[in-house]
Amino acid sequence: MRYETIIGLEVHAQLLTDSKIFCGCSTRFGEGPNSNTCPVCLGMPGVLPVLNRKVVELTIKAALAANCQIVRYSQFSRKNYFYPDLPKGYQISQYELPIARGGYIELEMDHGQSKKKIDLNRIHMEEDAGKLLHELDGVPADHSYVDFNRTGVPLIEIVSEPHINTPEEAGEYLRILRSMLQYLEVCDGNMEQGSFRCDANISLRPKGAPVLGTKVEIKNMNSFRNVMRALEYETGRQSSLLESGEKILQETRLWDVNQGITESMRSKEEAHDYRYFPDPDLVPLVIDDAWIDEIRSTLPELPREKKERFVKEYALPEYDAAILTATRQLADYFEECVRLGPQPKVVSNWIMGDILRHVPDTRDISQFPVTPSHLAEMLLMVDKGTISGKIAKIVFEEMVASGRMPQFIVAEKGLVQVSDEGALEKAIQEVLNANADQVEQYRQGKEKVFGFLVGQVMKATKGKANPQVVNELLKKMLAG
Amino acid sequence: MKITKHDVEHVARLARLRFSEDQLDLFTDQLNTILTDFDKLQQLDTTGVEPSTHAANLSNAFRDDQIRPSLAGEEALKNAPAHERSCFKVPRIIEG
Questions:
Q1: What pLDDT score does B51 carry?
Q2: A107 and A179: one domain?
């Protein structure tokens, strides 16, 4: 039987605020355990949470960019459960009245050949829980240890409709969503530090069947690759169960990255009875048009728009534009360089090849020693014929190492291209003399030898010869 | 009966409360009385009345995104029954 895979994703994104959602503690990552805590986020009796205005603004920003409807009247609720990472015994979240509903993320699959809209169900605000440690000094401990620094850090949860049908679509959805949130400066998107996390709901049904199959929730996937691997694995697991006539259990399963499998959490389903109710400590949130318009006016150009503009304005292939606009910082780098004069496609080639090889995270490109003006100046030297394309590679590596401007490097190392015919004729004659056999072969019609001879000339001139001039001269001299 | 004794046991378990048989019977009765009263309220015609989620007639109480001092040193741990290395120490929680 052929099955259709139905996937819905829940993404938790940490908002880029300085302080927590309901108190003034810092949200900084990596501080000493429990050093960013206060009576409010520790859940002491008698304290009162007060909502951070910036949390609301960042959420509205994300919601507008994701084409959501902003809900004019929303409310926080208590989600009740007991776990040691949750000091109050409830998490403050939104339930019946989330701040945003609907919306969509548009995927471009097959290198932009097909588009697909993934509808969103909602976006809501909530507080993060604390962190549990089960090891001391790398050894499993006989107790668990709780660090509440993360408790009360603001999150948005972005819930998709179950409109995703393959692990590849899930990966693409996450990439687009993360890039959008990074462009908006709503979330830093760091999956290892947990500021962008994803849970998945996945079910299978016979192709064309009207009702959904039993869904399984998968957690603990800390990279896009792992999300895709886990969904791949789970699709296989569920289809073989269905093939052999067995039933799928509705449960939560954890992705085990080392074994490459999902495993049942075996938790009691009862624990999912959260008994939500409106939090009486927090008054309702009323959002008017003026506030929405004000936030809308701050929205930057988003990745999709920027990509389309790059294709049009710089005549770049879709592929290049997609890579260059992956982060706002890389797109800015490209545009700044192009503004200084070099050909856009040439700049794009250098960025996609040599620069990306040196810069693993393009959001840090401002720290890269080769700035847009370094690159532009070097490319203009190639354009003018001052240096050859081959020498440019040497100049580039030198700029990476020293951060010096190309004109100094070229002058100091004597890398200026030799176009002078007299000097080149001499070098060519020497090569011809030294390779009499090959010259003879060429004259008998073995044209492949030509490339070899050009190579010898380039070698003799340490790559500084102007290849075009060499080509012309060599042809003339071989004929004569 | 809207609420059964079984429901009361379930909610008690979720709230980590342990009750005697007599208490379970008593609370089942009391909760049913409360819900019956709510049934009466449900009969009111509330057409055109906005649902309310809060008793106070207020909205939008905000603070600015400014860091304020957290508890100093290991102050946060002072009420903890057990702590070690600046962490709260709890019985081992098996993940999953």
A1: 79
A2: yes
pLDDT value for B96:
41
User: Dihedral angle at the C-alpha atoms of A302, A306, A308, A311, nearest 10 degrees?
Assistant: -160
d(CA A229, CA A459): 48
Q: Which of A294, A325, A346 is the last residue of a domain?
A: A294
| CA A468 – CA A477 distance, rounded (Å) | 14
Q: For residue A390, what are the domain limits?
A: 303-413
- pLDDT of A326-368, one tens digit each? 899 999 999 999 999 999 999 999 999 999 999 988 989 999 9
Closest-CA residue of chain B to A55: B65
Chain A residues touching residue B68 (CB < 8 angstroms): 19, 23-25, 38
A148·B90 Cβ contact <8 A: no
Same-domain check for residues A203 and A311: no
Whether residues A128 and A256 fall in one domain: yes
| Cα(A456)–Cα(A445) distance, integer angstroms | 19
Residue A406 and residue A365 share a domain = yes
Whether A237 contacts A246, CB under 8 Å = no
Instruction: Indicate if A396 and A428 belong to the same structural domain.
Output: no
Q: Do B86 and A34 make contact, defined as CB atoms within 8 angstroms?
A: yes
Question: Is A184 a residue whose pLDDT tops 70?
Answer: yes
In Å, how far is A142's CA from the nearest CA of chain B?
6
Domain identity same for A137 and A269:
yes
Tell me the pairing of strands B62-63 and A51-52.
parallel
Given an 8 Å threshold on Cβ–Cβ distance, is B89 in contact with A33?
A: no
**Cβ-proximal residues to A129 (8 Å cutoff; 6+ apart), any chain:** A83, A85, A86, A91, A150, A151
Residue with tokens 């829940």: A10
Indicate the residue among A259, A294, A329 that finishes a domain: A294
Q: How many domains does chain A have?
A: 3
pLDDT digits (tens, 9 = 90+) for A117-151: 999 999 999 999 999 998 888 888 899 999 999 99
Looking at the structure, tell me whether residues A377 and A464 fall in a common domain. Answer: no
What residue segments make up the domains of chain B, in order of their start? 5-42
Nearest CA distance, A146 vs chain B (angstrom): 5
Quote the CA–CA distance of A222 and A12 in Å, as a whole number. 12
The residues facing A251 across adjacent strands are none
**CB environment A369-394: b (16+ within 10 A), e (fewer):** ebbbebbbbbbebbeeebbbeebbeb
Q: Classify residue A59 as exposed, middle or buried by CB count within 10 Å of its CB (0-12, 13-18, 19+).
A: buried
Q: Which of B56, B70, B87 comes nearest A147 by C-beta?
A: B87
Strand partners, A107: A116
- The pLDDT tens digits of the residues spanning A70-80 come to 999 999 999 99
CATH code of the domain made up of B5-42: 1.10.20
Question: Measured between CB atoms, does A47 come within 8 Å of chain B?
Answer: no
Residue A321 shares a structural domain with residue A388: yes
**Record: contact B60-A134, CB cut-off 8 A:** no
CB hemisphere CA count around A88 (13 angstroms):
25
